[in-house]
Amino acid sequence: MALEHAILVSLLEKPGSGYELARRFERSIGYFWTATHQQIYRVLKRMESEGVLAVREVPQQGRPDKKEYSVADPGRAALSRWLHEPIEPESLRHDLAVKIRGAAFDDPAALVDEVERHHRVHSDRLARYLAGELRDFTGPDAPAPLDTGQELQHVVLRGGIAYERMTIAWLDDVLATLRALGAPTGARGGPQDGRPGPSV
Amino acid sequence: MALEHAILVSLLEKPGSGYELARRFERSIGYFWTATHQQIYRVLKRMESEGVLAVREVPQQGRPDKKEYSVADPGRAALSRWLHEPIEPESLRHDLAVKIRGAAFDDPAALVDEVERHHRVHSDRLARYLAGELRDFTGPDAPAPLDTGQELQHVVLRGGIAYERMTIAWLDDVLATLRALGAPTGARGGPQDGRPGPSV
DNA sequence: GCTTTCTATGCAACTCGTTGCATAGGCAAG
DNA sequence: CTTGCCTATGCAACGAGTTGCATAGAAAGC
Description:
The structure is a homodimer.
Chain A: H1 2-13, H2 18-27, H3 37-50, E1 53-58, E2 66-71, H4 73-84, H5 95-102, H6 112-138, H7 148-182
Antiparallel strand pairs in A: 1-2
Helix pairs in contact in A: 1-4, 2-3, 6-7
The structure holds a DNA duplex (30 and 30 nucleotides).
């Protein structure tokens, strides 16, 4: 149900079309939410029919017309209600962690490239977040007295930065572990487990 | 699709019933995966019908019979194939981050209780992970020369520990920010920067 | 001229995941 | 002795999310 609320927050911050929302969620810093455009269009339509959003057709030149959505009063109320409800703390589901444990039944060294690729992606993300932070919050061009919304956006972004830094450090740890297992020198490690090894 | 692979890995580590898998995923340390029992039963049934799993009916005394699943050769092959495919790096979807940004349009102070609750949950999880690490990997009772599977389980667990520590630190940051916004009088009560407070 | 990319919206079909409910014996607390 | 919890499996319905496809004009590169 949280996509609905993410849309409400995003539209309160700035009204926009389904397409624009998709891009905010997809690439933007500070939302930490993903959704495809199909999902967004579908939910927008439902929310509009329920009266929590208002639409305005905006004719454009040189590009297709768009439907600009904004939050109606019932939407604001729904968001407020949700903010006062408790939500479940996240449990992370990390596909890569499954792969790492699975590598015990295959060749651990074969995962190195994959882990390095993830490392690059997270490093790029971190760089993008840090650039955004400098631009919007801590740089010389940022508004000096931040308002409430900006303070809150900043603390969320700091969360994203902390997450990427933690992930990068962990991936370094993973790489070191995989390499130690691949090059068994002396006492530690080595594929000498008692399990059925890499078949297939 | 990764639930299938998480099940394969878990069953390779140790065969078990749907019920047992549900508990491993639900509460256990080191999997970082969640699934309800219904989902697991459904997928197990499909995987069995596809021939990637084998079932064995195990009669029990004092409790209902169970179906113990184990990985068949095609399952091992499927896992191996998956391990060599690239996967998308995760993008985190944090409901709480949406709430925090949404609080700009409501009362930020009202989120304090919720954030504190999440803080407690993550602290408990961290304590559980650390206890597990001591028990299985770094304590005096842990097997001294870890085998490949154990090394990999340990590095995944270290990831969980790093995640919880990062999250707890971030929630501290969030709490400090919320409190600074709620008590605007103090010229510099802020967590790190000495910026002036809110101006809603 | 042709292909690709960007803006912009949408349908159809599918899988993934959650919630509510049902069954059923054993066990422990009140 | 009744209520509730634990083990163990499962159906039905719904909502969330993904993938493939379709349309369509404008701009930019080959």
